[in-house]
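[Discussion] Sanity-checking designs against the backbone

I'm trying to build intuition for which residues belong where. Below is a structure token string of 218 positions. I'd appreciate it if someone posts a full sequence so I can compare it with mine line by line.
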């Protein structure tokens, strides 16, 4: 089998989506850790030209974009047409499509808030961040109110869906790296607790990867 490498980080919610998908589909892969998020060199991100993660490497092919990576993993597993694996482009419900868009959006805002405020130490009071946080709050409120209907609108029976995996990784990441309060979103918190019992979730718990051991060369 062609070796599969995933460039990413154990603390990254986009990377975790790919990792959970790979575990759910029983696709073996190796994690290649991005050590320095401040690097401006694409090589530090496994060759991702936009300096983002994750990147999936299948032989010489690079796949950018977490949604594309889930699709590729389903293809590798021979399950791209299996109705029990629900990829985002296969969803026909407008409600689920809207929900998926809000999850991707909130995931991107989470990156903006973590990188901008926590890593780059820019002011959280800037209108750039207050509006982003308000929009993320709105997206999570919309999802919280409709979660039961969205889940009911997904194809059933199913083994895994991009929607459920992305929503779980988003909610758990907001707990792992707090940006906005989740107090007002009880349905989302309960959902994440339920999903966390899955083996794929337990094998991919968020953590900061240890720095590589320093060489003691002379
Ligand atoms: N559209 C990309 C977004 C990926 C993304 O934003 N990843 C975050 C990590 S969770 C990242 O690259 N953060 C580093 C940065 O933005 O500097 C995807 O779907 O993979």
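Best answer:
Here's mine. Compare freely.
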């Amino acid at each position: 089998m062609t070796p599969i490498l995933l460039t990413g980080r154990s603390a990254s919610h986009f990377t975790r989506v790919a990792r959970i998908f790979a575990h759910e589909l029983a696709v073996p892969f190796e994690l290649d850790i991005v050590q320095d998020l401040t690097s401006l060199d694409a090589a530090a991100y496994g060759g991702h030209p936009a300096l983002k993660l994750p990147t999936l490497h299948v032989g010489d092919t690079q796949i950018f974009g977490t949604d594309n990576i889930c699709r590729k993993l389903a293809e590798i597993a021979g399950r791209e047409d299996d109705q029990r694996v629900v990829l985002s482009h296969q969803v026909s419900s407008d409600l689920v499509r809207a929900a998926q868009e809000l999850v991707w959006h909130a995931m991107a805002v989470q990156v903006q808030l973590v990188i901008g405020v926590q890593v780059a130490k820019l002011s959280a009071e800037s209108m750039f961040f207050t509006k982003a946080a308000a929009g993320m709050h709105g997206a999570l409120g919309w999802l919280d109110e409709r979660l039961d209907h969205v889940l009911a609108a997904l194809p059933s029976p199913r083994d895994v869906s991009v929607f459920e995996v992305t929503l779980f990784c988003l909610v758990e990441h907001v707990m792992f790296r707090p940006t906005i309060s989740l107090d007002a979103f009880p349905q989302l918190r309960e959902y994440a607790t339920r999903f966390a019992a899955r083996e794929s979730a337990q094998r991919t718990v968020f953590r900061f990867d240890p720095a590589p051991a320093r060489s003691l060369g002379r």
